[in-house]
Amino acid sequence: MRSTERDDVAHAASLDSPQPPPSVLARAAALLGAFDEAHPRLGVAELARRTGLARSTVHRLAGELVRLRLLDRAEGGTYRLGMRLFELGELVPTRRTLTDAALPLLEDLLEATHQRIHLAVLDGVEVVYVAILGAGEVDVASRTGGRLPAHATGVGKAMLAYAPPEVVRRRVEAGLPRLTPRTITTPGALTRELARIRAEGTAYDREESTVGVSCVAAPVVGTDGRVRAALSVTGRTAAIDPVRYGVAVRAAAVTLGRTLREAGL
Amino acid sequence: MRSTERDDVAHAASLDSPQPPPSVLARAAALLGAFDEAHPRLGVAELARRTGLARSTVHRLAGELVRLRLLDRAEGGTYRLGMRLFELGELVPTRRTLTDAALPLLEDLLEATHQRIHLAVLDGVEVVYVAILGAGEVDVASRTGGRLPAHATGVGKAMLAYAPPEVVRRRVEAGLPRLTPRTITTPGALTRELARIRAEGTAYDREESTVGVSCVAAPVVGTDGRVRAALSVTGRTAAIDPVRYGVAVRAAAVTLGRTLREAGL
DNA sequence: CCACATCGTCCCGCTCAGTGGAACGCATGT
DNA sequence: ACATGCGTTCCACTGAGCGGGACGATGTGG
User: Which residue among A24, A107, A134 sits closest to B25, beta carbon to beta carbon?
Assistant: First the structure.
């Protein structure tokens, strides 16, 4: 992942999307959104380029965001996302309730398997990773706070299988992008796979999101019977025993579901 | 910690601080800041009360923030912090680099001790918890993304001991609030304690932040010899063996420091 | 060594985005 | 029945915010 500091400016601003009239807030949000994993530090000019705003506007907005601690001033006249964003992010209810309830279970799974443990939620047609343990074990695409298309991941398929059909339809309509040669890319195959998952209660990912990496996942069901999250054990394909890990993951998922239900969702 | 959902509205808005002219951004930030651990969901009226804004203004701003996914609309006309905030928060560089490098070490510490493991940074005169493992073991005040005064915690004292003297001075000037009967509350005692920590390389917290809870902490030193973070093993006083855990924590802290240095901070 | 590009910063006049008081309909509780 | 709270909508006034343009510092290639 190592940011090579390459200047791949071929990134294009928001010249295409037809936003009617960008408000101050929208501009500021665009500024924050200009930062990503590969570009954690940006200068005024670069920010102006990425957001399509005037340099003077970026200058003023960034200054104000720094005062609000949503941005940090780094040396060389560059900016980074500020600590306040992290603090606010940790207060987001979905994240907090889930992690609070799940962390002990994730830790047990880690100790039992010594594989990478994922906790994720479904946001629209994508998976958002809420907590990850066992980092460093293997080099996968997942990142806490990161997104991946739901159809291409174990946790995603586990949730799609138990989500309202309309969600699956939207995923199909949004396309089934290929991440690896084994990614499911046809609506038919996806529907069949989801039926299989419902029958078995467990989802598998055999190198569908990352080559050489497999995973076993299970859905977490909340109060009203709707999927609230999913968790998975992930690792090199050779290290992932579907049967043994399947039991452990399902057990943890069921426990988590019960905990959430007891806590009133 | 369990939120008792008490309605302690005796919270007071920002009627005291003499902000010159609150800008749109400042208002929006105030809206986001109105949410806290005990109040994860707020309605328009409550938000207006907390921020001092007009109800109509809150209504419009909140609507815009929802469109930007910085807020979520919950049922009952209430709002919560939105997933986007979590995603942005996970991109904050200090958090990312630190956790990426530290997580494996924290996991090892957890497995070795089965106590609560803290990773924290110093922000001004307060400690911000960046990562916590071993949740549920014990009921302490720490929370990922949460803040505590530096002088009253193990990680805080570890960092103060190796921080520029000016930071300690600012902490003293900001006051040394008492969290428990054993919290250090006099400048003299603090200075002595910090000298002791520098001599030994390890900080202890004997029920200074939470009654019944102790911890062993060590500073993490980065490239330029400055403290970048601190980590600690925390648990019920009876369970914390200063000597045994001291070795483990110092070792992990040194390793983390080296890792950060090798990665170019 | 200079011409040129690009950076962050600052100024300032124009304008429209943003503000909040007031009024409305709807639940509550009294 | 009334009173009080809520979320929502409307709208006239105005000053906050915008960005073109200018400036000095820095870096780069001829």
Answer: A24
- CATH code of the domain covering residue A138: 3.30.450.40
Distance from CA(A125) to C1'(D5), angstroms, rounded: 39
> What is the pTM for the complete model shown?
0.91
Structural domain containing residue A132: 92-262
Q: Residue A105 has which token pair?
A: 């279970």
Q: Do B118 and B40 lie in a common domain?
A: no
Cβ(A44)–Cβ(A55) below 8 Å: yes
Q: How many Cα atoms sit within 13 Å of B209 on the Cβ side?
A: 25
Q: In this structure, are A96 and A46 located in the same domain?
A: no
Q: What is the largest CA-CA distance in chain A?
A: 59
Residue B209 lies in a domain: yes
Domain boundary among A82, A111, A128: A82
Shortest distance, CA A78 to any CA of chain B (angstroms): 13
By three-state DSSP, how is residue B80 classified?
A: strand
Which residue among B71, B88, B105 closes a domain? B88
Token pair 């520029």 in the structure block, residue: B164
Distance B49 CA to C27 C1' (A): 20
pLDDT, tens digit, 9 for 90 and up, residues A201-257:
999 999 999 999 999 999 999 888 899 999 999 999 999 999 999 999 999 999 999
| DSSP category for residue A88 | H
B18 in a structural domain: no
Q: How many CB pairs under 8 A join A and B?
A: 151
Chain B residue whose CA is closest to A84: B89
Q: How many domains does chain A have?
A: 2
